[in-house]
Amino acid sequence: MRIGAFLLAAGSSRRFGDADKLAQPFRGRLLGEHAAAAMPTMRFVADGAWVIASQERHRCEPAWRNAGFDVTLNERAGDGMGTSVAAAAMMASRANFDAILVALADMPLVPRSHFSALIDAFSSPSDIIGSIGGHSRTPPVIFGSDHFAALAKLPGDTGARDMLAKGRAITCPPAWLIDIDTPEILRSLDPSDGHAGATAPTPGSKGDEF
Q: Which terminal residue of the chain has fewer beta carbons within 10 Å of its beta carbon, N or C?
């Protein structure tokens, strides 16, 4: 099975304010570096791993490349996350991949073991295998090649959430699926901050945007 890995890092971060959230320090790294470090890129050496970004020379780029990723730009990133998913599907289709593993750069708590569980669960081009830690399915997710054509046509503002909802899912602790969308969530999760643990972020809201 040939599986391509795609880390989406082209979001607009509107809820975070003017700062680039992926460039914020978090638990000893920049926030946007954690997911790249956790994804088992050695399993994709023969196939390929990419970060889909919205700008050149992002502060996380050296770490992304050190983790085994190439970086490609999504010039339509401002139209919504669906355009990044579509770009991943088009690249995968051209490369004749059997599936793509899609993860989000603002979900830094997903461990390598969960990415590996998703990969191990894949067996058919018709598969859609997401993650669930609460009531709704979220990324990270694997899409089999039967879905590449539909993914490539996704509108930016709708994304793949309807497709994700129809697939099966690997259950994991809710905390793994927390997405950091606001400075408050970032502070609540960083033990170096005096407010760590002060609030309980809602995990998995990315399933509503993906």
A: N
Amino acid at 77: A
Rounded Cα gap, residues 29 and 113, in angstroms: 20
Helix (H), strand (E) at residue 99: strand 99-104
In tens, the pLDDT along 176-190 reads 999 998 989 999 997
Alpha carbons 90 and 6: distance in angstroms, whole number: 12
Global pTM?
0.90
Q: Where are the domains of the chain?
A: 3-208
Residue 41: pLDDT above 70? yes
Among 73, 144, 72, smallest CA distance to 102 is for: 144
Rounded CA separation 175/188 (Å): 12
Whether the bond into 140 is cis, omega within 30 of 0: yes
Domain 3-208, CATH: 3.90.550.10
What ranges in the chain are assigned the alpha helix state H? 34-38, 61-66, 81-94, 112-121, 148-152, 161-166, 183-189
CB 24 within 8 A of CB 186: yes
